[in-house]
Amino acid sequence: MKRVLSVASEAVPLVKTGGLADVVGALPEALAGQGWEMRVMLPAYRGVLDRLAATTVVWSDPDLFGGPAEVHLGKVGTMEVMALSAPHLYDRAGGPYSDLHGDFGDNAERFAALCWAAAAVAREGAEDWRPDVLHAHDWQGALAPAYLRYAGASLPSLITIHNMAFQGRVGADKMGALRLPREAFHRDGYEFWGDISTLKAGLTTADAITTVSPRYAEELMRGEYGQGLEGVIAARAGVVVGILNGIDDRVWNPETDPECISFSVTNISGKSKNRKALQAEFQLEKKIDEPLVILVSRLTAQKGIDLLPPAVEELVARGGALALLGSGDSWAEDLVRGLAARFPGRVGVRIGYDESLSHRMFAGADAVLVPSRFEPCGLTQLYGLRYGCLPLVSAVGGLADTVIGASPASLAGQAATGVVFHPVDALALRQGMRQLCDLHADRRIWTAMMKRAMKSDLGWSRSAARYAALYERLLAR
């Protein structure tokens, strides 16, 4: 079995702040079926080592960016984890990137240390294990392929962009602290407008670049999406591949989900019972015949939260309701609270993060709203499809790749699985909501779309096969 080392800042079930963790945590098991053994290297944040079984130290460094460090090999479930223990970098209160006072000031060094250790293990091995390929994720893992290249190592590497908006940008004065060669500080290296971009370091040195959807790979070559690095992506277009994310279709399964009343594509009667429970949980009016729509999201401009008011007005005017779960920017939280105050009994809002509640929301709602301005892949719409909760999405990134918009052609061909709107503005979103309500009013069409959505192949098998094929191509080179 061939070996791959995955380098990331988070992975389910050990630590999660977003979709990155879901992907990193799902890939090892999915790739095992493709003949690849994947180990995940991530920081040993406080409490991580306590959750690993049968740990052994397989690598050490007496001075890793300011202090001693060890890599502990252990398991969580079926996933083999190489946890980098460096107390001076990771043993602190708060999340992986910040505490109550904001981002940690040494994040650049913290994740450079992770990449340095990963590159060392990739070059030299750890005990009797050495990878055939190194797979880095986002800016936190981006220096791993860079350190390999700067050391002259021939081991193939790739980097996956989960969100181009986060680039690990720091001042050029950190060059020495990050152990970066001065001669690579130029426009074709890791220099970015006079600063260091650790993400750019990985993009210019990895043998392949992947994004989490094919559409996002194309979008990143354009200025409106590339975040200043569109030229780098365009220049390396020949090695850029879009591989769509999957979801854990065992965890997200309406037939076995412990958070809801069971239902399936062959027996959808439980859906109406979940709907009534959701109405009660959000204190919505009980006699709502029109769409019960949900939004489960970070509340930020990227997610299109500022576009909501006209669409919600349309939904309420048509007799529908909205249940919303999320947290984020203060202005966005104020905006959605204002909608709840304006439309009592029709708009219900919960500020915060609640995984269990999100399952109940998908199980009980008719539709899920995802009006993002950009979306590398998106998992919310995939959960919606799985639960027959039809997505209303903007035509960007992975949203466009996974939802077949209801058009005369797709409806006639019995292919539609949701509503897609474009451009990403308030008018188009309102029109999308109007179309959603019209479709919902025709129970025959709506039920057919719902069952079609639930039959979508959303698991990891196809995506894992594409990653495995890419690894093979890199080895063949």
TrEMBL record:
<dbReference type="GO" id="GO:0004373">
    <property type="term" value="F:alpha-1,4-glucan glucosyltransferase (UDP-glucose donor) activity"/>
</dbReference>
<keyword id="KW-0320">Glycogen biosynthesis</keyword>
<dbReference type="InterPro" id="IPR011835">
    <property type="entry name" value="GS/SS"/>
</dbReference>
<comment type="similarity">
    <text>Belongs to the glycosyltransferase 1 family. Bacterial/plant glycogen synthase subfamily.</text>
</comment>
<comment type="pathway">
    <text>Glycan biosynthesis; glycogen biosynthesis.</text>
</comment>
<feature type="domain" description="Starch synthase catalytic">
    <location>
        <begin position="3"/>
        <end position="234"/>
    </location>
</feature>
<feature type="binding site">
    <location>
        <position position="16"/>
    </location>
    <ligand>
        <name>ADP-alpha-D-glucose</name>
    </ligand>
</feature>
<dbReference type="Pfam" id="PF00534">
    <property type="entry name" value="Glycos_transf_1"/>
</dbReference>
<dbReference type="InterPro" id="IPR013534">
    <property type="entry name" value="Starch_synth_cat_dom"/>
</dbReference>
<comment type="function">
    <text>Synthesizes alpha-1,4-glucan chains using ADP-glucose.</text>
</comment>
<dbReference type="GO" id="GO:0005978">
    <property type="term" value="P:glycogen biosynthetic process"/>
</dbReference>
<feature type="domain" description="Glycosyl transferase family 1">
    <location>
        <begin position="282"/>
        <end position="444"/>
    </location>
</feature>
<dbReference type="Pfam" id="PF08323">
    <property type="entry name" value="Glyco_transf_5"/>
</dbReference>
<protein>
    <recommendedName>
        <fullName>Glycogen synthase</fullName>
        <ecNumber>2.4.1.21</ecNumber>
    </recommendedName>
</protein>
<dbReference type="GO" id="GO:0005829">
    <property type="term" value="C:cytosol"/>
</dbReference>
<dbReference type="InterPro" id="IPR001296">
    <property type="entry name" value="Glyco_trans_1"/>
</dbReference>
<keyword id="KW-0328">Glycosyltransferase</keyword>
<keyword id="KW-0808">Transferase</keyword>
<dbReference type="GO" id="GO:0009011">
    <property type="term" value="F:alpha-1,4-glucan glucosyltransferase (ADP-glucose donor) activity"/>
</dbReference>
